[in-house]
Fold this sequence. Notes:
This protein has 130 residues and is mostly beta strands. It has one domain (4-123): ApaG domain (Immunoglobulin-like), CATH 2.60.40. It contains no helices and nine strands. It has strands at residues 4-9, 12-20, 32-42, 48-59, 64-70, 78-79, 84-93, 97-108, 113-124. Strands 4, 5, 6, 8 and 9 form a five-stranded antiparallel β-sheet that branches. It is elongated, with a radius of gyration of 15 Å. The N and C termini lie close together (9 Å).
Amino acid sequence: MPDSSQAVTRNIRVSVHAHYIEQRSRPEDGLWFFAYRVELENVGDETTQLISRHWVITDGEGRVEEVRGPGVIGEQPVLAPGDKFHYTSACPLPTSFGTMHGSYQMVTSEGDRFDAKIAPFSLSLPHAVH
């Protein structure tokens, strides 16, 4: 699985790219730290707002953690047609690799709610084969 992904749901494009952060990791203590950059782009003609998030994080042992909450990085961005919003976040893991996927809960200016898919991507050390 690649360390990046892209999905489009109802004209909201979600692109993610992850990378390993060696400086924040402590493999001797069972901690591997990964950062990921997300870009949301409204490629349609309807204003849409991100309301909440749902992440599914699976470590290298198959343990699953789900994270839900309002907005992203303390924001609930509104994306007018053509707008982009990006942010960077991080995920510590107890294994040297894992995967993430999920969805953003969105609402249109007309009040329609939908889940914008976050396609699966890997969290892994550079040049590692799993």
